[in-house]
Design goal:
The complex is a heterotrimer.
Chain A (H helix, E strand, L loop, with lengths): L14 H23 L7 H17 L8 H33 L6 H16 L2 H12 L3 H25 L3 H9 L4 H38 L5 H11 L3 H32 L1
Chain B lengths: L1 E12 L2 E12 L3 E5 L6 H8 L7 E6 L2 E2 L5 H8 L2 E4 L11 H6 L8 H6 L4 H13 L15 H13 L5 E5 L7 H18 L2 E6 L2 H7 L2 E6 L2 E7 L5 H8 L14
Parallel strand pairs in B: 3-8, 3-9, 6-7, 7-8
Antiparallel strand pairs in B: 1-2, 1-4, 4-5, 9-10
Helix pairs in contact in B: 6-7
Chain C lengths: L3 H33 L3 H18 L4 H39 L7 H16 L2 H12 L3 H27 L1 H9 L4 H39 L2 H11 L3 H29 L1
Helix pairs in contact in C: 3-4, 3-6, 3-8, 3-10, 4-6, 5-6, 5-8, 6-8, 7-8, 8-9, 8-10, 9-10
Classes of the chains: A mainly alpha, B alpha/beta, C mainly alpha.
């Protein structure tokens, strides 16, 4: 119907767009309020910022290594990589077994729900707290670090593996069931081999994350490795150059791992 | 009077030649359809006209203007006179129908007004009228991702029409539609061409549809024009040439002249 | 049809590959254990100790309950810092993503530079950023905020750029064809298409950042991480355990709200 239309509304009014706008408004509002609420202890932000820029500049141009040599630094990186590997390995083994029970097409709903709830709890405790809890009994060191980190490795890989298992064509499982195979046979002959590609890809992605975690645990929870050196360089020796060198090394390894993970992910998509 | 004149157009992508010495004249108010296999160069040809794709050689004259020589701002101005509709509709999914239609006017508005989405009352009225004309007056505030394929393409057509274009480029407009919706869209485009005297240059792979609705057909094969004549004169043998198959293998009925 | 011999060859080869893989993994495991001084038996032995500790201390005693108000304040501070870092990072990442995305980039060189910056921000662990900022900002809540901010920018810039390429591609083409300018296209085609993804990612990053904030807090002497560290080092285990419970409750609450919102929005 034509006629004098003073105001034509343009936007839609769905639940989705209302929720969207409300969420953004709340988050932004909290952020703005935060600037007034945070206690920055009379820090001179301008001066700190200037110092920061100077630090970044000197880190890029004058890396130094006073308290360790390059071979020692490389060994520290190796330690950190090994910590990451072990926790990934443990997490993967556990997740492979329990992942079968967390897959909806292979297990009972009750068990699936229980495992998902358990993982939610596990993931809610930050990794550093898990490690420190274990350190009470095992002391600060690689044992506590690896055991503590494995919780999140397990949680992450359980979700990844079980979802890969769930993606398997139900008809394949049906066919094997119909020919008389039992659950264990179906799992070992069909389910796991078919999911090998995604499993390897996800596991490597977790290894990438675990390297970062191992660095963090070295810095904050006494796990050793390059993270410990980083903590000492900054919090103990206050040596900008050293912090720079260590950061460069970590960056290099992290980028290599990311490239590896992306390549693996791409072979996945090509295969499918 | 030729509204669009293409002379010796060529385009290469790395080691693939998409267009090779293509020349074509389109007259005002004509309904011209380009047919050919996928990858024959139809899409590239269309996109060279409004420079979504940059040709390597040749000239394109639209309304007497050398398209390839235009600078950025003049190119944008030229594009406001050329509408385009797409196989996959190319709408902004979460926005409403009327918002999508108004996007057609962005080229006419200042940057600031366009960025903030400030449309005048007249512009909104215009959008409303066009939507009324394409039969979507009841869907004005619906989100585009909730529409059917035929409805989405009508939004696309409305978006092109609000530009008051002299030429509408149609890149496989019915390829994603079921036969019923496809016919409705083709009927509508034909009506627009006749009633509003708008020139239409379209890509299609359905030869029978092309013959039924077009004034003229251009057959393209491997980047070259192999046929350029009245739609009704198209012979089965020529279609076979265009599609590179034996005449018997093609689903096509010659028109009785 | 393959002969029985050929079939057997394939199976044998597959089994060999499998065994070879197993051997490699085994060797790496043994090697890593040596390098890191890790023993599986010590690991297994630590489990009952940890479970025991949790069982005993997760029931708060009087001392822990007295610490509750303090814990609440620090938790709130940590959540606040997470949200602030995420929101600010999302804003910066949006600008970077527009520059980096194939669909909206003004120039391929700009895109390459931005992607490099995002990669560096992302691949230097938040912990390392914290150690860097510690030198200039000291033991201050801003140190943590900045570290989380930089890490989140690196992550979101890539996520948003990919989202732009996936969702806004076709609409951008249409708007260009009708004569809209670059800025108009970004505002009218990219923004609205990107908003739901943008918000969904933001909610996800708030969750992740709360966990990182706890870690960074230990190193920068702020937030709930620091509080845990204080109780831990003074062997006030019941209060430390209460901190853990507090963090779990907050994370699960935010995760639940976040999941519900994301379902409505997307």
């Amino acid at each position: 119907m034509k006629g004098t239309r003073r105001h034509i509304r343009l936007r839609g009014r769905s639940a989705s767009s209302v929720a969207l706008r409300a969420t953004l408004a709340v988050l932004v509002g909290i952020t703005v309020a935060g600037f007034f609420l945070l206690d920055t202890k009379h820090l001179n932000v301008a001066r700190a910022g200037a110092r920061l820029l100077k630090d970044l500049g000197s880190m890029m141009t004058h890396p130094a290594a006073l308290h360790f040599s390059i071979p020692e630094a490389l060994k520290a990186i190796l330690v950190t990589l090994c910590l990451g590997f072990l926790t990934t390995f443990l997490g993967a083994v556990l997740a492979l077994v329990f992942g079968l029970f967390a897959a909806r097409n292979l297990s009972r709903p009750g068990l699936v729900a229980f495992l998902k709830g358990l993982v939610a709890f596990i993931r809610a405790v930050p990794t550093v707290l898990w490690v420190l809890i274990f350190a009470i009994g095992a002391g600060l060191g690689s044992v506590a670090a690896i055991m503590g980190m494995t919780f999140h490795s397990f949680g992450y890989l359980l979700k990844a593996y079980s979802e890969s298992f769930e993606e398997i064509d139900g008809e394949i499982i049906e066919a094997l069931k119909a020919s008389g195979a039992n659950w264990l046979q179906i799992v070992t002959r069909a389910v796991i081999p078919s999911s090998m590609g995604p499993i390897i890809s996800w596991t490597f992605m977790r290894f990438e994350i675990n390297f970062t975690n191992a660095v963090a645990m070295g810095a904050a929870a006494g796990a050793g490795g390059i993270g410990y050196d980083l903590f000492m360089a900054s919090g103990f020796y206050f040596n900008t150059g050293e912090v720079g060198t260590i950061t460069w090394l970590i960056l290099l390894v992290a980028i290599l791992l990311e490239i590896g993970a992306t390549r693996l992910k791409r072979t996945q998509h090509v295969q499918r | 009077m030729a509204i669009l004149e293409i002379k010796h157009l060529s385009k290469r992508y790395k080691d693939v030649t998409a267009l090779s010495d293509v020349s074509l004249k389109v007259h005002a108010g004509e309904f011209v359809t380009v047919i050919g296999r996928s990858g024959a160069g139809k899409s590239t040809l269309l996109r060279c006209v409004n420079r979504l794709v940059e040709a390597n050689a040749g000239t394109i004259e639209f309304d007497g203007v050398d398209v390839r020589a235009l600078k950025k701002r003049d190119l944008r101005h030229l594009r406001t006179h050329i509408g385009m509709i797409f196989q996959h509709f190319n709408l902004v999914p979460r926005q409403t129908v009327i918002e999508n239609v108004l996007h057609g006017l962005l080229g006419y508005k200042s940057t600031l007004a366009g960025v903030l989405g400030l449309y005048t009352a007249e512009e909104k009225e215009k959008a409303f009228d066009i939507l009324d004309r394409v039969g979507l007056e009841d869907q004005v505030h619906k989100r585009c991702d909730q529409l059917s394929g035929g409805q989405k393409q009508r939004v696309g057509i409305a978006r092109a029409l609000i530009q008051e274009p002299h030429l509408i480029l149609c890149d496989e407009p019915i390829a994603s539609l079921d036969p019923g919706s496809a016919k409705k869209i083709m009927d509508r485009l034909q009506r627009i061409s006749r009633d509003m005297n708008i020139t239409i240059l379209m890509n299609l792979h359905q030869v029978d549809v092309a013959i039924r609705y077009s004034d003229r057909i251009v057959g393209v094969r491997e980047g070259r024009v192999v046929y350029d004549d009245d739609a009704k004169k198209l012979k089965k043998k020529t279609v076979a040439e265009i599609y590179g198959s034996e005449a018997e293998e093609i689903l096509f009925e010659e028109q009785a002249v | 049809m393959s002969t029985p011999l050929a079939v057997r060859e394939v199976l044998v080869r597959r089994n060999l590959t499998f065994l070879a893989g197993l051997a490699v993994v085994g060797a790496l495991t043994v090697g890593s254990s040596l390098v890191t001084d890790f023993s599986f038996s010590a690991g297994i032995a630590s489990i009952p100790k940890a479970l025991g500790w949790m069982a005993v201390n997760f029931i708060p005693n009087a001392r822990a309950l007295r610490a509750l108000p303090n814990i609440g304040i620090k938790l709130a501070e940590t959540v606040l810092v997470s949200i602030m870092a995420t929101v600010l990072a999302a804003g910066a990442a949006l600008v970077l993503a527009i520059l980096a995305s194939r669909t909206t980039r003004p120039h391929p060189a700009a895109s390459a530079v931005v992607r490099l910056i995002a990669s560096v921000c992302r691949n230097i662990p938040v912990v390392a950023w914290a150690m860097i900022f510690l030198l200039s900002f000291g033991q201050n809540v801003l140190t943590g905020l900045l570290s989380l901010f930089i890490g989140t920018v690196g992550y979101l810039a890539r996520a948003y750029a990919e989202a732009i390429d996936e969702t806004a591609d076709s609409a951008v083409e249409a708007l260009h064809a009708s004569g809209a300018s670059w800025l108009q296209t970004v505002a009218q085609a990219v923004f609205p298409a990107l908003m739901p993804q943008l918000t969904s990612w933001m909610l996800y990053m708030v969750e992740t950042n709360i966990r990182d904030a706890t870690l960074v807090g230990i190193l920068t002497g702020t937030g709930i991480g620091f509080l845990f560290d204080v109780y831990y080092k003074s062997m006030n285990y019941s209060s430390a355990a209460l901190v853990v419970i507090g963090v779990v409750i907050v994370v699960i609450a935010i995760e639940t709200a976040s999941n519900a919102l994301r379902k409505i929005i997307l």
